[in-house]
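Backbone-to-sequence.
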């Protein structure tokens, strides 16, 4: 259950980093999302989607969390 918090924190950090490094950075163009691969769940018997988690948090959510955590 802590994966959601973890990838949101990493997304905020990456969003702020890319914003400081790329002059034309846009979240919608440069951030594709988050994948978690649970290796114990990925087997030929369970199928291609089992053991793979993907999410792409909304920009507003990431900006609000960044403002809360860093004041930026």
């Amino acid at each position: 259950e802590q994966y959601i918090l973890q990838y949101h924190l990493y997304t905020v950090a990456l969003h702020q980093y890319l914003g400081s490094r790329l002059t034309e950075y846009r979240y919608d163009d440069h951030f594709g999302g988050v994948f978690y691969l649970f290796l114990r769940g990925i087997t030929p018997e369970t199928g291609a989607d089992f053991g793979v988690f993907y999410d792409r948090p909304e920009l507003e959510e990431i900006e609000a969390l960044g403002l809360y955590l860093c004041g930026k």
